[in-house]
């Protein structure tokens, strides 16, 4: 599942998700967008928080999966 899909299924816009994140830690809209577009990988606490807010398992996010070819 793509992060964008998980966010949309949780009925969040990028802006509303970042507002929710701000209740727990700092994250700019630009930083979140870079994560969603696959330009950045979040540090573990932020990644887990995003997944908790969206109601998904971190292992289900495609952008964060380990590339099987690199093992």
Descriptive notes:
The protein is mainly α and 71 residues long. It has one domain. Helices cover 48% and strands 0% of the residues. It is built from four helices and no strands. The protein starts with a helix and ends in a 17-residue tail after the last helix. The model has no long low-confidence stretch (mean pLDDT 93).
Q: What general outline do the C-alpha atoms trace?
A: globular
Structural class by secondary-structure content? mainly alpha
What is the typical, i.e. mean, pLDDT?
93
Secondary structure: number of strands: 0
How many individual domains? 1
Runs with pLDDT <50, length 5+? none
What's the number of helices?
4
Order of helices and strands: HHHH
What is the rounded Rg? Answer: 12 Å
Helix content: 40-55%
Strand content: under 5%
The largest pleated sheet is described as: none
The N- and C-terminal alpha carbons lie at a distance of: 22 Å
Regarding quaternary structure, how should these chains be classified? single chain
Keywords: Plasmid
InterPro entries: Cro/C1-type_HTH, Lambda_DNA-bd_dom_sf
Pfam family, one: HTH_3
GO molecular function: DNA binding
Structure summarized in a few sentences:
It comes from Paenibacillus peoriae. This is Helix-turn-helix transcriptional regulator. This protein is an all-alpha fold.
Question: What's the helix and strand layout?
Answer:
Elements: H1 3-9, H2 14-21, H3 29-36, H4 44-54
Q: Which properties best describe this structure?
A:
single chain, 71 residues, mainly alpha, 4 helices
């Amino acid at each position: 599942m793509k992060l964008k899909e998980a966010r949309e299924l949780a009925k969040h816009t990028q802006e509303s998700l970042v507002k929710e994140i701000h209740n727990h830690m700092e994250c700019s809209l630009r930083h979140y967008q870079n994560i969603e577009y696959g330009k950045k990988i979040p540090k573990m606490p932020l990644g887990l928080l995003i997944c908790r807010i969206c109601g998904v398992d971190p292992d289900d996010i495609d952008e964060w999966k380990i590339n099987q070819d690199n093992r």
